[in-house]
């Protein structure tokens, strides 16, 4: 695609060509909604072709509908300098070798202040230019597997990642870091936890809530923590490494199957749910908070199980849900449904017959809880027993997203629903635990400044 019209296609591209305007041109646009002045920004290839994006003098970006434009005039250019100074990443025989696999997300972007465009920055040289500390930790090589925001991650990407991880392990790498958008990081973490079993090395998923050249960005620190974990820690599991407290004191390592994004904008957004995190990490060291994790090994054995049935759905129950929600999934050929029910695992009575029809049609249905913390308990009320009699299987304390991924993974391996049940209810990588901590539910995770300050006055 030509740089002059970067990212523009279809109608939007036609308009720019018609008026002889290029990306980065400072221009005045007449529209049926008035006049706009600003710099034409590049767009991503996946954006629509119905808008131009303009950076106004105020700093804001506006989308201008193509069919409102009556005239455009360019007057000078103001191109963004979006190359980070690239330096060759140094290599030392004494340092561990870490591989960074990029999938996209904010961590793979930085913001150009002059233009406001978010652009990718990824090669080892660029990373070294931006975060030189990485070279003190390891020898880093990188590969960009995908460049997507994480809502676009899915089965195809999960499988590719798992297979690539298998190859990297076979080739002798000491640790893997996966750069990922934060929004669905916990889905990918649990997919990889099921697809990559018995890994001899750490597999660390990392992202950032704010792009790397915003002053409050968490990108560099998260990357340092993740790289430190991949290079040095003895935790040979799929983990998520993100900000611990709201300050930048330390990062937390969360087990891939017990973690969830819990806040849309805080940097301390990832929390271990129903358990305590695996470890704390800072620039100097990784400090385990528990000892029941898979330890690093020297051998190169790993089991790669890249299975995924796409016809699996997750249904978040709401009062007054109608039975056709379930019927339509069955009619459309879905083979598995995970329900996030209320309280201990409930849905309303009118849906019961639909559940019966679905299970009779051979659809696997599992119940999880919207409360996130705690177990499904379907023996407590008659309604729960009724539901179980109709074929719903309680999924213990699996998080809804994790149960969804696991069911898709299980149905990807077999049609035998008894085997699927065995897989679903046998703990594989921490997704089901025997008990949850009994003395609180955000233990050792900090994150609330008032509470931390209060605790400090007690524990001097
Ligand atoms: N929307 C972005 C993503 O998940 C957010 C992020 O990277 O933090 O890809």
Give a brief outline of the structure.
By secondary structure, this protein is of the alpha/beta class.
Written overview of the protein:
The protein is α/β, with parallel strands linked by helices. Helix content is 26%, strand content 23%. It contains 12 helices and 23 strands. The protein has helices at 10-19, 124-130, 134-137, 155-170, 185-195, 219-232, 324-331, 352-360, 382-389, 400-411, 417-425, 449-458, and strands at 25-31, 34-40, 51-56, 61-65, 69-77, 97-102, 109-111, 118-120, 139-144, 175-179, 196-197, 203-206, 238-243, 251-255, 259-261, 270-272, 279-281, 286-288, 303-304, 312-316, 336-341, 364-369, 393-394. Strands 9-6-10-12-13-14-17-18 form an 8-stranded mixed β-sheet, sandwiched between helices. A 5-stranded antiparallel β-sheet has the order 4-3-2-1-5. It has a 4-stranded parallel β-sheet with strand order 20-21-22-23, sandwiched between helices. Strand 1 and strand 2 (34-40) form a beta hairpin. It is globular and about 75 Å long.
